[in-house]
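Title: Comparing notes on inverse folding

I've been comparing how different people in this forum approach sequence design from structure. To keep things fair, I'm posting one structure and asking everyone to reply with a full sequence. Here's the target:
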């Protein structure tokens, strides 16, 4: 029965990915390509595999925490996980759908903080879950710099 919760966390994370992709994909060929790309911008094909991997790792991390004994740390960790996930979705809307690069930069800084808080709380509940969040936090660190470079 506990595996069903893993499926639900994966579904939630990939639902966010899917909604974000609906805002992102139509903008790639036109608006995004018209931007002056910073030298540090990776090739476009990198983003799909990276984000797919990160969403899966995030889902597993949340699942591990959700399977731990009830505690305030578990509750707060999952609450911050959902906050950072909402901020993740909001960034796609701001940057790609609204073309609000400055607003997206402010938002991604908030997201970075929320990911950090989530990861630190996850450490107290399940060290393995925090290790699974680390690549995501690192990628968003890079994405923040990339967003600022635009």
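Reply #1:
Here's my take.
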């Amino acid at each position: 029965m506990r595996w069903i919760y893993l499926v639900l966390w994966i579904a939630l994370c990939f639902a966010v990915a899917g909604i974000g992709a609906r805002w992102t994909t139509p903008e790639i060929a036109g608006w995004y390509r018209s931007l002056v790309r910073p030298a540090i911008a990776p090739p476009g094909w990198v983003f799909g595999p990276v984000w797919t991997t990160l969403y899966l790792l995030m889902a597993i991390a949340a699942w591990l925490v959700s399977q731990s004994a009830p505690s305030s740390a578990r509750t707060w960790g999952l609450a911050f996980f959902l906050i950072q996930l909402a901020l993740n979705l909001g960034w796609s809307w701001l940057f790609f759908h609204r073309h609000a690069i400055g607003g997206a930069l402010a938002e991604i800084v908030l997201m970075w903080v929320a990911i950090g808080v989530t990861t630190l709380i996850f450490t107290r509940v399940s060290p393995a879950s925090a290790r699974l969040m680390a690549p995501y936090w690192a990628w968003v660190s890079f994405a923040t710099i990339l967003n600022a470079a635009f």
